[in-house]
Amino acid sequence: MVAYIIRRSIIGVIMLLVMSFVTYIFFFASPVDPAQFACGKNCSPELREQARKSLGYDQPVVVQWGQFLKGVVVGRDFPVDEELREKNPDQVTHCSAPCFGFSVYKQETVNHEIKEAAPVSISLGIAAVLIWLIVGVLLGVIAAIFKGTLIDRGVVGLSLFLYAFPTFFIGTLLLTFVCIQWHLYPVPSYTSIAEGGVGQWAVNLLMPAITLAVFYMAGYVRMTRAFVLESMGEDYIRTARAKGLPKSKVLFKHGLRAALTPLVTMAGLDIAAVLGGAIITESLFNYDGLGKLAVDSSADFDLPTIIGLVLLLGAFVIIANIIVDVLYAVIDPRVRVA
Questions:
Q1: Among 35, 65, 186, 254, which residue's beta carbon has the most beta carbons within 10 A?
Q2: What is the DSSP letter of 98?
Q3: Does 91 score more than 70 pLDDT?
Q4: 117-299 belongs to CATH 1.10.3720.10
Q5: The whole model's pTM is what?
């Protein structure tokens, strides 16, 4: 098991390096000057040149990538150019490891921006994941148990109905009618646990979490139903039934466990995407998370922040895949020898 985890971790580190290099190639190997997208929309030629030297955009792409990797490991000082640091020593900013860059437009490190926005996205992501996994998997199992009945058709039909609506429609519907017109629920406004306690934190997360969870939940209902029905038709299930095991034990210990493998894959990738920033949901409810930060940074021409967010989201996905691989080995020991 330890050797399996080490192998997957090494592969994950290689994928992180490749992903970061490809990201730098996409952003900096084009004919467009990246400095014009680094200091805001109204950046003058003088400020553009200063931003180019401050961020090291005047250096080759490979050198920039190497400096970024060094910053991730040991941190970096901005401006990158030594002459600028010597002329203005009081304006030197240290970015601690892991350093994702420096925003010239906002005059602060990307780490600081991510640190401010990440708790919002993580809180929203955790709430949404709990809703869609618990409700989605439970309804999927119920639909599989009552296959062909009215309950089965109702659950599947409802999931298809909800799956057809985009996130912004569901969020607008809940916000406009449930919160504003009918006053059935207070208008959400993110409050941290430190400020309002667990209760207020959970109350303000419910509506945006439901908005985010409905789309994913509908997919998990259908997938869970299909995987459970497939596993329940296997020979070992018939053997377990022939031994006289209770139906509940056959379903949950043998049938559902086999169905968990593909569901874990879905969950790992979906959770990584949500933690990377639920752009539509955060913008709709005005939650200052990673998704809203990405939208605002694109509108403000804040290239360093965009690059930092892209690399962070890519790291989320790769790390999620490593965790999924380890969970595979826990659920199905045969995976460890692969």
A1: 35
A2: S
A3: yes
A4: yes
A5: 0.84
